[in-house]
Specification:
Elements: E1 21-22, E2 26-39, E3 45-55, E4 60-67, H1 68-74, E5 82-87, E6 90-91
Antiparallel strand pairs: 1-6, 2-3, 2-5, 3-4
Length: about 100
Amino acid sequence: SSSSNRRPGVRHSTFKSLRLGLSSQSIASGFLRFWDSLNFKKGMEFVGITVLFLDEKVNSVIHGFTPVGRASHYMPFLKVDSIVKVDRFEVARCSK
């Protein structure tokens, strides 16, 4: 991966440090990709953005979602193949 998109001063974290639930935790992680999340039952209404984060140290991927009310705040920082820092989020177990 290219280091040109890496944010200076942001240290990479591992997913192992995450705790279940809503808290003030933060993580800096490799950012793979994002796309618009749409509600197909409501005429393709934009409901937020879906993101994929990568922990290169343990080769693990986390799926995330940012609701429509916060999407515009984060969009300028979402650059594929960069490291992004995310604060104050909820962690839930994956059903699979």
